[in-house]
Amino acid sequence: MKTVLLILIILAVAMGPARALRCHVCSSSSNCKQPQTCPASSRYCRTMTTVEPLSGNLVRKDCADSCMPTYSQQGQVSSGVQSTQCCQDDLCNERLYSAAPTRTLLSSVTLGLALALGLLTSAAPRL
């Protein structure tokens, strides 16, 4: 009975309120940094860079519900070409050209369930 109670407590803690993602949200001709808390639906921090040789480049950073990264190869950039970088950690869109790949989400719920399953498996012979 104590094992079941322990598992229920672990699951309750793991399923607690999700923490909102924080991203830099701004628009500028250079690398801007303005941290903000994203809406609950946002899963990505996004950085979009538009190349405009005559009027100056435009950098836009925001929170996004979905994000599709796009890249341009060096030497093949023309006016109006846009690149988009996506990431999923707090304030991960700080750098202008982030090399950080999009990571797979390992939520606290998944972690809690894996821990509970491990406890159940180790306690099963005693039940």
TrEMBL record:
Superkingdom, taxonomy of origin: Eukaryota
Residues annotated as domain UPAR/Ly6: 21-106
Database matches in SUPFAM superfamilies: Snake toxin-like
Any one GO biological process: response to stilbenoid
Major subcellular site: membrane
Subcellular location: Cell membrane
PANTHER family to which the protein is assigned, alphabetical: LYMPHOCYTE ANTIGEN 6D
Name listed for the protein in its UniProt record: Lymphocyte antigen 6 family member D
Organism phylogeny: Eukaryota, Metazoa, Chordata, Craniata, Vertebrata
